[in-house]
Amino acid sequence: MYAVTGATGKLGRLVIEALLKTNPAERIVAAVRDTAKSKDLAERGVIVREADYSRPETLGPALAGVEKLLLISSTEVSGRLPRHRAVIDAATQAGVSLFAYTSMLHADASPATLAVEHRQTEELIVASGLPAVILRNGWYTENHLMALPIALEHGAFVGAAKNGRFSSAARQDYAEAAAKVLATEGHAGKTYELAGDRAYSLAELASEVSRQSGKTVIYNDLSEAAFRDVLTGAGLPSDLAGLLADADTAASRGALFDDGGALGRLIGRPTTVLQSMVAAALRH
Fold first, then answer.
1. Is the pLDDT of residue 78 over 80?
2. Which of 10, 130, 243, 264 is the most exposed, having the fewest neighbouring CB atoms within 10 Å of its CB?
């Protein structure tokens, strides 16, 4: 039996859908904080269980009978480590045969502040002795395209990445990879650096949006502090704005670039190209 934590989140739902393509619903556990948000999954036969990272007493029952578990990292901006530790402890007690974790690209060496808790979580997993696979996900292309409406309105994307290149991929690509490692054998003990096949700079992103939209859109590179201020001015919490601005600075140093091709090999197809994602975003 497979279990996916955070199963009602954007990534979690896609992992569940990918698993359903090759596995019966009664073999899949959607481990969620709020079961009311997963009624649609239950109606399709997926087993829905409460699993709240911040309430460890829910985790043991959620993992009963589970053989392979995917821990999707908590969406909390900080303080994720105790939550992750609780899931690792519960998985150890449950005796899962494979523990998969969604980490961050090059988490062991990345200068990004976002990588710190991922690195610490990886260390906890190793120390636990669990048979584990680490999925170091690169940047999601959707992260950039969230700013598309504002970029079209103002004629510019803003950031602090300079000419840094993003080997990003679609959330769907990462979801298929996670489902693949759960549903197939031979992944324990491995760490996958998962990234898109084709990298791009933010200036190239702006150029592609210009080409497809017919509107002039440029990339305006800012200092990290100025970009943080733009993000807070747009309504983001200051701590999240700081982490995202820091991630752009890390990207300028190559932290979000990878040309190893592991993601495409794992999912058995080329990763989703930027051009098609821009086209889809413009349609919607």
1. no
2. 10
